[in-house]
C-alpha cells in the first residue's frame, strides 16, 4: 500500500505529509536513505519540483532541514543538529556531506566519555559547537564535497569536487581544494 501511495504522489505530484515532520512540495520526487531517522527526529520541508535522493540524519530532536524548489540532491548525506537550509535551484552531486556541528568537543577532557555515553543512549551537546549551514539559491556543489558547520554558500557559487568548505563562499565564485579557496569569480547570469 505504501508503494502505491508513493507512486500516486509521484505521478500526480501531490503534496506528502508524514507525522507533521516531513512535507514534500508538489511535483517533487524523494527517495530516502534512512527515513526512520527523519520520522523520529527533526523536521524536513522540501519545495516544489525537486529531486531528493540523499540521507538525512538528525542528531537533535528539534533539527530542521529545508530544501527549496527545483533542487537536485544526489546520493549525499545531511547531518543536522540545529539547521541546514538549501535554497532554490541548487544542484548537489553524489557523495556530498553537509554537517552543522563538530559532533564532539575539540577538548579531549570534554569528549572522553562519549563512547561510554553512547552505550547508554546519551549524547552531551553542551561542549559541541553547532552553527547552521546555508546553501543559497543557484549553487552547484560538486561530488565528494564536505561542507562544515556555520558555512554560508553564496548565491550562484560553484564548489569543486572533493572540496572541504570551512568558510563562507562568496556569491558567484568558484571554490576548490582543502580547505576550499576562491579560484575564480563568475558573472551573475541574470
Structure description:
The chain has 190 residues and is of the alpha/beta class. The protein has one domain (2-185): UDP N-Acetylglucosamine Acyltransferase, domain 1 (3 Solenoid). Helices cover 14% and strands 31% of the residues. The chain has four helices and 20 strands. The chain has an eight-stranded mixed sheet with strand order 3-5-8-11-14-17-19-20, with no helix packed on it. A hairpin with a 3-residue loop joins strand 1 and strand 2. The chain is globular and about 50 Å long.
List the helices and strands and how they pair.
Elements: H1 2-12, E1 16-18, E2 22-24, E3 29-30, H2 35-40, E4 43-46, E5 51-52, E6 55-58, E7 64-67, E8 72-73, E9 77-80, E10 83-86, E11 91-92, E12 97-99, H3 108-111, H4 114-119, E13 133-135, E14 140-141, E15 146-147, E16 152-153, E17 158-159, E18 164-165, E19 173-176, E20 181-185
Parallel strand pairs: 2-4, 3-5, 4-7, 5-8, 6-9, 7-10, 8-11, 9-12, 10-13, 11-14, 12-15, 13-16, 14-17, 15-18, 17-19
Antiparallel strand pairs: 1-2, 19-20
Query: What value does the average pLDDT take?
Result: 88
Please outline the major beta sheet: 8 strands, mixed
Q: Tell me the total number of β-strands.
A: 20
- If you compute it from the alpha carbons, what radius of gyration comes out, rounded to the nearest whole angstrom? 17 Å
Assign a percent range to the helix content: 10-25%
Count of alpha and pi helical runs: 4
What name goes with the CATH superfamily?
A: Hexapeptide repeat proteins
End-to-end Cα distance, whole Å, is 45 Å
Low-confidence stretches: 10-19
The arrangement of helices and strands along the chain is HEEEHEEEEEEEEEHHEEEEEEEE
How would you describe the shape?
globular
**What is the SS-derived class?**
alpha/beta
Please state roughly what percent of the residues sit in beta strands, choosing from under 5%, 5-15%, 15-25%, 25-35%, 35-45% or over 45%.
25-35%
What is the spatial order of strands in the main beta sheet? 3-5-8-11-14-17-19-20
| CATH architecture descriptor name | 3 Solenoid
* CATH fold call: UDP N-Acetylglucosamine Acyltransferase, domain 1
The top level CATH class name: Mainly Beta
- What's the number of domains? 1
